[in-house]
Amino acid sequence: MKFVIITGMSGAGKTLALRSFEDMGYFCIDNLPPKLIPKFADICQEVDGEIEKVAIVVDIRGGKFFSGVSKILDDSKLEPTIVYLEATDDVLIRRFKETRRLHPLASDGRPIDGITKEREQLALLREAANHIIDTSEFTGHQLSKAIKQKFQKGYPSFTVNIMSFGFRYGIPHDADLVFDVRFLPNPHYINELQPKTGDDTDVQQYVMKHKIAQDFLKKLEDMVNFLLPLYKEEGKAQIMIGIGCTGGKHRSVTLANILSEKLGETEKVNLFHRDINKGKK
């Protein structure tokens, strides 16, 4: 029997994750007291294989029932797969403000106090987790896709995600590799190119006509092709490559487009331009 424990920070998307498991045919339970997990597993075993996949959310909403969860899981014979969802403090605070909900551990109503306490209480579970997913940059659809890529048969075994971004807007939280291309000649200072993006041919030609860009692209491609088999061997389902310039509009988009095209010949590639439309008047 496949047994998945979903845990992590309040506001990080555990409810959405549980729905994704339900879509994949898992028997799902939200906020089950940890002490009941072994008993529930026994019940599942007694129904003659009718329940083959189970996903359970366990988190600090359980209050006193949540204490000792790590020891309970260690003592059980389940060997569950633990999925831990997290996000940055700023993102979690924003989500609580948007939903107008109080954090379960914030007795005085300040989300940051509850978030700090929660990280401390979940430290052991995070350390034991098989999968840690940072949902800071995820939409609900993207989180669902990430869950299904890891757990649903039929999804590609490995995916290369390439994201262009602007450093002025922050580095992507879920990036495995980050490459800075701010040293390349900048089309922003060419009047006719400034309003365009790296999706435009003349911007790409301007960036790539310089030998430094050509040399960097070759070294970048060699580096990624060297690393991909190693990531696959480690059992990763996907990798996020971030390519950043100042505003995320010209140079990073150009390099991300070209790298995506080259890797797409042998790999499944998803391409994202996070900041390409930012700063437009």
UniProtKB/TrEMBL annotation:
GO molecular function: ATP binding; GTP binding
Keywords: ATP-binding, GTP-binding, Nucleotide-binding
Nucleotide-binding as UniProt keyword: yes
Domain RapZ C-terminal: 159-276
Residue positions binding ATP: G8, M9, S10, G11, A12, G13, K14, T15
Domain RapZ-like N-terminal: 1-152
Keyword Transmembrane appears in the UniProt entry: no
Source superkingdom: Bacteria
A Pfam family the protein falls into: PapZ_C
Amino acids binding GTP: D59, I60, R61, G62
HAMAP family: RapZ_like
PANTHER family, per database record: RNASE ADAPTER PROTEIN RAPZ
The protein's name: RNase adapter RapZ
